[in-house]
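hey
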């Protein structure tokens, strides 16, 4: 344990492997298995082995320690590309330990894994459940990924509504600009709703004109030949002047074919 906590992981595994488990009580054998799994997990090696060991001892633990072993066992499986079982274990954790400090993140990750492998409808469903059940940072992250999954799944009306709602949430300020941009994009792709996108893009472009999503919004507005008012949007503004390629003064650099 001390070697693992000191990040001397190879030494920890070597020490753990020398223990004769037949001489130990069941409780001490579980400790050896737990710390072996934990050490492999922290080493970022043999994730499948780490996952199996942690999940095995989780069945013999209880309370918050069981939740912790379940959580890191599931994380290890997901890093070993065993996503189906990882999701199942995350769901087991949230069902058996809903008040655990690992529950919100486990719920979020069960949806995020679906999102990460392109199963957007399943992702949207799971992440919406996370947002409804768990306030705080994982709930807010879940709201963004749920709305974005809805967009990627092709549900443009639902995505536009969810993204606009998200953009108004004070707790989701970090997602506000991208939520507003993609809400407008979802509207622009729906027949009969194209005009509803313009005021959202205009709000982005004027509200924080040097931000990334403001620049994207300006491009969308320019495609529609929308002229923005204000000194930042005049013809002489740096925002309206195309960048000029840098001229190489040194002839040796200019002659370099690379």
């Amino acid at each position: 344990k001390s070697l693992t906590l000191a990040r001397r992981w190879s030494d920890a595994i070597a020490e753990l492997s020398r223990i004769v488990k037949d001489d130990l009580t069941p409780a001490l054998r579980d400790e050896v298995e737990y710390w072996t799994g934990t050490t492999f997990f922290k080493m970022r090696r043999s994730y499948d082995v780490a996952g199996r060991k942690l999940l095995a001892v989780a069945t013999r633990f209880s309370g918050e320690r069981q939740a912790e072993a379940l959580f890191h066992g599931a994380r290890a499986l997901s890093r070993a590309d065993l996503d189906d079982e990882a999701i199942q274990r995350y769901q087991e954790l949230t069902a058996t330990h809903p008040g655990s400090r690992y529950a919100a993140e486990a719920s979020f990750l069960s949806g995020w894994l679906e999102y990460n492998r392109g199963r957007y409808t399943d992702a949207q469903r799971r992440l919406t459940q996370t947002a409804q059940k768990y306030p705080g940072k994982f709930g807010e992250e879940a709201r963004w990924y749920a709305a974005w999954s809805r967009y990627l799944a092709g549900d443009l009306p639902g995505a536009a509504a969810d993204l606009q709602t998200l953009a108004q949430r004070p707790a989701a300020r970090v997602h506000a600009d991208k939520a507003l941009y993609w809400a407008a994009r979802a509207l622009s792709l729906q027949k009969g709703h194209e005009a509803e996108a313009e005021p959202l893009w205009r709000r982005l472009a004027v509200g924080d004109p040097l931000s990334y999503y403001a620049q994207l919004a300006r491009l969308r507005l320019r495609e529609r030949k929308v002229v923005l008012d204000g000194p930042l949007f005049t013809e002489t503004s740096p925002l309206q002047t195309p960048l000029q390629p840098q001229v190489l003064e040194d002839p040796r650099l200019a002659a370099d074919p690379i």
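The two ends are 53 Å apart (CA to CA). The longest helix spans residues 26-43.
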